[in-house]
Known about the structure:
The chain is α/β, with parallel strands linked by helices. The protein has a single domain (2-6, 23-228), classed as Rossmann fold (3-Layer(aba) Sandwich), CATH 3.40.50. 44% of the residues lie in helices and 17% in strands. The chain has nine helices and eight strands. An eight-stranded mixed sheet has the order 1-4-5-3-6-2-7-8, sandwiched between helices. The longest helix has 18 residues, at 214-231. The chain is globular and about 50 Å long.
Amino acid sequence: MSTSKNQSRNQEKGTGALRKPIVIAIDGTSASGKSTNAKLVAKALNYAYVDTGAMYRTLAWHCLKNGVDVDDARAVAGALRRWKARLDCADGHVRLLVDGYYPAREIRTAETSAAVPHVAAIPKVREWMVQAQRACAQFGNLVMEGRDIGTNVFPETDFKFYLDASLAERTRRRQADGVEEDLARRDKRDSERKAAPLMVPLGAVVVNNSGQTPQQTSEFILAEVRRKLAAQG
Length: 233
């Protein structure tokens, strides 16, 4: 994997020293508002936004496009070794480009969505993705959302949040988006997988946002982040 950098936020003015980027990890269950709130927080703080789920979707799309059986772990791992993927940051959004192309629409199709859980459960895939996600820090301070950011990708960060909502609320949100999904089954599969299962990260602030608007949830997260930043000086 190669990287492309079109912005840098790491240089500390006045000292000439490089500071370790801040990473805000937002994990949680499906339809708990991770993407919406991560984008709001990133925009408010002027941090780069990373949707790690889109990275897995990009690989799933690549496999389908090239006729790779997503149920064949060895075949997927082979495709992963061969694909020409690189990180890029544009308009504050970090994403994976494949042969210089970002398949924004293609990764959101029903076919790609169905393939994602299969490729995401492969240990070799998760190992590759973790390295790629850690490399996103080259773009500066990050808001990164996913299912194992605070537990596996950046477990050392001081800014960990775990979003959840009632099953009924999350199902309603999915249906409002025109998507029918068995979220209880998805939760079970995510929490029981061998490679980086979904769990509450150690030290994370758990936010149950049932009945909350995205603005209310993001404002709570921002208040916690700012409080911790102030405490760190």
